[in-house]
Design goal:
Keywords: Membrane, Transmembrane, Transmembrane helix. This is DUF4190 domain-containing protein. The chain is mainly alpha-helical. The chain has one domain. Helices cover 58% and strands 3% of the residues. The protein contains three helices and two strands. The protein has a two-stranded parallel ribbon with strand order 1-2. Helix 1 packs parallel to helix 3.
């Protein structure tokens, strides 16, 4: 129902029970985002594995709590971005480990194997 052309339609709001709590952002959602960001920033240095793993564990708990709360815990966007950053940190750590292994194997392959004796030794 609109009253004036160009005006936003008025949508009647449902009545809430007076004892219903106010919707609040989950504190775990903020923690997941912060830990995911730390994990992504330090992921290539392999130090981001720990905060990224904690972020993914907290995200699972926060999603469960948000489901049980029936919509009174918000912060799904923060959770989603935090999880993406945590997975990015884990991916960067895995890339760093693979690169280090490849460099180590190439150097090992180029090194002489066994003892390098002088030419006059039989």
């Amino acid at each position: 129902m609109t009253t004036v052309p160009g005006q936003v339609p008025v949508v009647p709001q449902g009545h809430r029970h007076p004892l219903d709590p106010e919707p609040v952002r989950s504190t775990k959602a903020r923690a997941v985002f912060a830990l995911g960001l730390i994990g992504a920033l330090t992921g290539f240095f392999v130090g981001g594995v720990v905060p990224a793993t904690i972020a993914l564990t907290l995200a699972r708990q926060a999603r469960r709590e948000a489901y049980v709360s029936g919509g009174f815990l918000t912060g799904a966007g923060w959770l989603r971005r935090g999880e993406q950053l945590a997975w990015t940190g884990l991916l960067l750590a895995a890339v760093a480990i693979v690169v280090a292994l490849v460099i180590g194997l190439v150097r090992l392959a180029g090194a002489p194997f066994g003892h390098d004796f002088a030419p006059n030794v039989d």
